[in-house]
Amino acid sequence: MTPHELAIKCAPMIADIGSAYYFVPNTLDAGKERGLGGYQFYFLGRGGVLGDVDPEVVTSAFGYFHPDLVTKIWNKARDTMDPREGARLHLACAAELARTKFADLDLAAFCVAAAAVNDAVNPAGLAQYAGVDAEPLPDDDAARAMQLCICLREARGSAHLAAVVTTGIDVAVAHYLRRPDFYETFGWSDTPSVRPEDRELLDRADALTDDMMETPFAALDPSGAEAMLRGLTEMTAALKAE
Predict the structure, then answer these.
(1) Boundaries of domain holding 84
(2) d(CA 185, CA 178)
(3) Coil, strand, or helix at residue 186?
(4) pTM value?
(5) Is the dihedral of CA 218, 222, 225, 229 positive or negative?
(6) Domains in the chain: how many in total?
């Protein structure tokens, strides 16, 4: 399997694992204890790694959300809790879920492989990724594996936004084409005008994203690639198990 193929195969599992903690009961309860609704804690938890910044910065890093929605939720959330503190609480919720779901898994080799990929990511221009990557990793393998997935999820997400901008497709159109059911949830109302070439541009952005993630995955030898896939597969199954 080539690094390019490996990056593509790992992407959906990393995306699911790295976001699995967002709206589970324990995370929602942790936010409520600090006066934050679910969406507020999500915004503060992810965006808080950027620091106490203006909402325009969070809009830039998140990409697909309507600026007015970001401003409304971000300002309310950061008035309630310090953003960096909120980000660390959010990551602590991720660690809690991992220690519950991954307790029976041997993730030592996965952590070594995922760390090698993460260390090979060039953070230039990837602000959201750089923010979460700067946070210290937990010592235990379960929580470390989860946080490395969070980092790699943000790396691909940040790279994808750069690819979308590079191709010239409007971010609102790209979001509508990719996830029309979530278009209004992300703060958009009017259905965007989709040009005939926009689907092709989104395909080009996807391909460019895959190309950008190839180099980090090239850091793995065959045994590292096997450990990466095995760990992702086992964590995916553990998260789905009751």
Answers:
(1) 3-240
(2) 13
(3) coil
(4) 0.94
(5) positive
(6) 1
* Residue whose pair of structure tokens reads 């995370």 in the numeric block: 27
Cα Rg of the chain (Å, integer): 18
Residue 214: CB partners within 8 Å, gap ≥ 6? 3, 4, 7
Residue from 156, 170, 148 nearest 232 by CA: 148
DSSP for residue 190: S
Distance CA(186)–CA(64), nearest Å, equals 7
Side chain identity at 189, as an amino acid letter?
S
Nearest to 239 by CA among 9, 7, 15: 15
Count of other CB atoms within 10 angstroms of residue 65: 23
Number of neighbours of residue 156 by Cβ within 10 angstroms: 23
Q: What is the mean pLDDT of residues 141-154?
A: 98
User: Cα dist. 186→122, 165, 180, 206 in Å?
Assistant: 28, 18, 10, 20
* Position 116 confidence tier, pLDDT thresholds 50, 70, 90: very high
What the block records as the tokens of 218 is 């090239």
AA letter at 195: R
Q: pLDDT above 70 covers what percent of the chain?
A: 100
| pLDDT tens for each residue of 2-32 | 999 999 999 999 999 999 999 999 999 999 9
